[in-house]
Automatic annotation (TrEMBL):
One of its GO terms (molecular function) is transmembrane transporter activity. It holds the Pfam family BPD_transp_2. The keyword Nucleotidyltransferase does not apply. InterPro entries: ABC_transp_permease (IPR001851), BCAA_transport_permease (IPR052157). The chain crosses the membrane at residues 15-35, 42-61, 98-123, 190-216, 237-258, 270-298, 310-329. Belongs to the binding-protein-dependent transport system permease family. LivHM subfamily. It comes from the Bacteria. This is LIV-I protein H. It is a multi-pass membrane protein. GO terms for cellular component: plasma membrane. It is found in: Cell membrane. Keywords: Amino-acid transport, Cell membrane, Membrane, Transmembrane, Transmembrane helix, Transport.
Length: 343
């Protein structure tokens, strides 16, 4: 039983990333009808927002430390971050330590700006083009963004550690009645799951309870009628593209302590995220979230040592096998709507 609980926790961790990326993909498809293959790159850009802020916070200058000597007895020169000069050593060290959570505030305006720029500069020219054209141009954009990141940050992974307060693991088993030490789970993975739930809840609340969100949902159902009412629905959809980019970016920001950022991490999640969207149902926001967690848990169980010994390599294909079974039994996906992409 403890092994089952542990795999469910691992699945919720992976499913959180899948659900957030798929949620942004579905927002874009549901509002603009665009199949955005550059969405994985937005996840990657969010992760590199964390890297960028960490480098900014650790910019330093040399000072002479009279308390430290070299082997000749001369005072040593040490690098002191500028942030120590501005806020003091203890506060500055705390700010650097909390670089990952602070990157949320740094990434939101950047990712919204990137999303709006993508939509206005490129995507809007492909609204009425076939989905194949949309896939080609957005996939090409993803490769360009990937190569830009590779050029400026290099090809190697860049560590982005979690704050010291969340380093280590929780004895989850003791909390739920198992023997102490039976289920040990990292603190930051729990934080990531809670963050994903808050972000998903915020998106749904925005669409459900704000006037802006209600208009957007009406536009998703009948764009032409909303436009005839004198509402500039295109402008609102542009904002939604920016919000979808921010959701993907924030998913990448908080994922950096789990998987160190690298230039190809967006591509690693891209194909799986599209499978999640299709399994959940094209255009269905609840379906995208549900499918993300279901497939994440399924992949986690397929990665167990006992399963791999019985069926080698099944963990690499289990998501696609599950997608085949689900789509054969429910062609529109788990929560898909009639008429979406059935022309």
């Amino acid at each position: 039983m403890d092994a089952i609980v542990l795999q469910i926790l691992n699945g919720l961790d992976k499913g959180s990333a899948y659900a957030l990326i798929a949620l942004g993909l579905t927002l874009i498809f549901g509002t603009l009808g665009v199949v955005n293959f550059a969405h994985g790159a937005l996840f990657m850009l969010g992760a590199f927002c964390t890297v960028t802020l960490s480098r900014i916070l650790t910019l330093s200058h040399e000072v002479v430390d009279p308390t430290r000597k070299d082997f000749l007895g001369n005072p040593l020169k040490v690098d002191v971050p500028y942030i120590y000069d501005w806020f003091g050593e203890s506060t500055g060290a705390a700010i650097i330590d909390w670089a990952v959570p602070l990157s949320i505030l740094f990434a939101i305006p950047i990712m919204i700006g990137i999303g709006v720029l993508m939509e206005r500069g490129l995507i809007k020219h492909f609204y009425k083009r076939p989905h194949a054209d949309q896939i080609l141009v957005t996939f090409g954009l993803a490769i360009v963004l990937q190569e830009i990141i590779k050029y400026y940050f290099g090809a190697n992974q860049i560590p982005a550690p979690a704050p010291q307060a969340f380093v280590g693991s929780l004895d989850f088993g003791a909390l739920v009645g198992f023997e102490p030490g039976a289920i040990i789970y990292p603190y930051w993975r729990i934080v990531y799951f809670c963050f994903a739930m808050l972000l998903v809840g915020a998106v749904f609340a925005f669409l459900q309870f704000t006037t802006f969100g209600m208009v957007v949902r009406a536009g998703m159902a009948d764009r032409e009628t909303v436009g005839l009412l004198g509402i500039n629905i295109d402008r609102r959809f542009t904002v939604m593209f920016g919000i979808a980019a921010a959701v993907a970016g924030l998913a990448g920001v908080m994922y950096t302590p789990i998987n160190s950022p690298n230039y190809h991490m967006g591509m690693d999640f891209l194909v799986i995220s599209f499978v999640v969207v299709v399994v959940g149902g094209m255009g269905s926001l609840p379906g995208a979230v549900l499918a993300g967690f279901v497939l994440g848990i399924l992949e986690s169980f397929a990665s167990m040592r006992q399963v791999i010994e019985l069926l080698p390599g099944v963990n690499q294909v289990v998501i696609y096998l599950a997608a085949i079974v689900i789509l054969l039994t429910r062609p529109r996906g788990l929560l898909g709507r009639r008429g979406v992409m059935e022309d």
